[in-house]
Design goal:
With 426 residues, the chain is of the alpha/beta class. It has a domain of 242 residues: Aspartate Aminotransferase, domain 2, CATH 3.40.640. It contains 14 helices and 13 strands. The strands form 3 sheets. A 7-stranded mixed beta sheet has the order 1-9-8-5-4-2-3, sandwiched between helices. A 4-stranded antiparallel beta sheet has the order 10-11-13-12. Helix 2 packs parallel to helix 9 and helix 3 packs parallel to helix 4. The chain starts with 26 loop residues before the first helix and ends in a 6-residue tail after the last helix. The structure holds pyridoxal-5'-phosphate. Pyridoxal-5'-phosphate (PLP) binds next to helix 3 and helix 4.
């Protein structure tokens, strides 16, 4: 193998090619969007109790096809998955002051969706191997005020749904699954996002499949589906004529997705199998290169599950390597490795939670009659997530660049070169 000097110290760079951007959009999407524009019907939603309350032909067709693909009774499109999460929390009847458990390793919207209904996010720690919610930590964070759990299928793998749903049933909690990063991932033969009371995926432009912006909610419950549709489309103006009696959280929004996006979504859904399979093939090929490296743990996939690799997650054994993560990353980047992320995120440490300031400037909803206890967001509440973020976790974005076999092999070679010369970094 290569004994050339590390690129960091002036040696030759392993990777000379420029990676092309991941782009799942092709001519099929162009044609589909063009047809919608030519039809003149760019949206057909009406914010009133009317046949068009459910949107136009592309919205309805895309929703039917999503329901069929993901094997779920109802699919409800929304203009972003952030909107989807807000609608989900509202639809499940979460009340002001209710506590909702969420992991710190997610995109901030999983936690802010809770605050949008004046409910209180409570952070539980993650599993050190899958980075998904740790069932034990969830249980330890349940209080008499806990009403729901937002489970995140982080990086492309379902959370441990059997364990989490068992805890939820025992404590009578609702469950939302944020499957933004794991469309098409399987959990014991079922699609991630379909095992909770409500789940769903993001269709924003850096996810596996996209419509520019957008999202799709999944539920098997007719009543929940109706409430999601109401919150999506001006519930307050519709409930009277529709004869809806439960007015709780019927404060609606305009979360509607357009006809062009849904026409694009129909084409994207046809490509999901292939796009997921290509990420999996690339990840498996990379694992072949990396699994022999000492002090590097390649991704752990749970039994009976599939991983769709939005991110290829790794953990470094820093004590054993005797080199800091930032030093290793600097060496890898110098060799031309792209898409590396040191650490992920710890949502509980955002200024909003550290200062408990969300609505207005006086601490609402934490400092109010609504919040029943002093919820702790201090550093230290999620030690696993914090240590991974600060020291040991390393991610490689798989939906940012195309990953051909040649490119994966070059990335593998760059890792091997840095590992062979780890001594020079010490
Ligand atoms: C992308 C993402 C979201 C937000 O989705 P948008 O469609 O961008 O609003 C929420 N949660 C997770 C885990 C995500 O990755």
């Amino acid at each position: 193998m290569s004994q050339a000097k590390l690129a960091l110290f002036g040696g030759p760079k392993t990777i000379q090619t420029t990676f092309s951007r991941y782009s799942p959009i092709g001519i099929e999407e162009v044609e589909a969007a063009k047809k919608v524009i030519e039809s003149g019907v760019l949206s057909q939603f009406l914010g009133a109790w009317h046949e068009d309350f459910y949107g136009g032909p592309k919205v309805r067709a895309f929703e039917r096809q999503c329901a069929d693909y993901f094997e779920v009774k109802h699919a409800v499109t929304v203009n972003s998955w952030t909107s989807g999460l807000i609608a989900a929390v509202g639809a499940l009847g979460i009340e002001p002051g209710d506590e909702v458990i969420v992991p710190p390793w997610t995109m901030c919207a999983s936690a802010t969706a809770i605050l949008h209904w004046n409910a209180i996010p409570v952070f539980a720690d993650i599993d050190p191997e899958t980075f998904n919610l740790c069932p034990k930590s969830v249980e330890a964070n349940i209080t008499p005020y806990t009403k729901a759990i937002i489970v995140v299928d982080i990086f492309g793998q379902s959370a441990d749904m059997d364990a989490l749903m068992t805890i939820a049933a025992k404590h009578k909690l609702k469950v939302i699954s944020d499957t933004a990063q794991a469309p098409g991932a399987l959990y014991k033969g079922k699609y991630a996002g379909t095992l909770a009371d409500v789940g769903g995926i993001s269709l924003n432009y850096h996810k596996h499949i996209h419509t520019g912006e957008g999202g799709v909610l999944f539920t098997n419950n007719d009543g929940v589906a109706e409430r999601l549709q109401l919150i999506r489309n001006h519930a307050e103006a519709v409930v009277g004529n529709k004869g809806v009696e439960n007015l709780s959280n019927m404060l609606g929004y305009n979360f509607r997705l357009g006809e062009i996006e849904c026409a694009i979504g129909i084409e994207q859904l046809k490509k999901l199998n292939h796009l997921v399979a290509s990420r999996q093939k690339a990840a498996d090929r990379l694992t072949n290169w990396l699994e022999a490296l000492q002090g590097l743990h390649s991704p752990v996939v749970q039994a009976d599950c599939t991983h769709v690799y939005y991110v290829y997650p790794m953990v470094l054994d820093i004590e054993m390597l005797g080199v800091s993560r930032s030093c290793i990353v600097e060496a890898l980047r110098a060799e031309g490795v792209i898409g590396l992320a040191e650490g992920y995120t710890n949502i509980h440490l955002l200024p909003m939670f550290q200062n408990k300031i969300a609505y207005g400037s006086n601490g609402f909803p934490w400092v109010s009659g609504v919040c029943k206890r002093d919820v702790n967001y201090r550093k230290g509440i999620c030690p696993v997530a914090e240590k991974l973020h600060d020291e040991t976790y390393l991610g490689l974005a798989m939906c940012m660049y195309e990953m051909t076999n040649t490119e994966i092999d070059l990335i593998g070679q760059a890792f091997c070169k840095v590992w062979q010369q780890m001594d020079s970094l010490r």
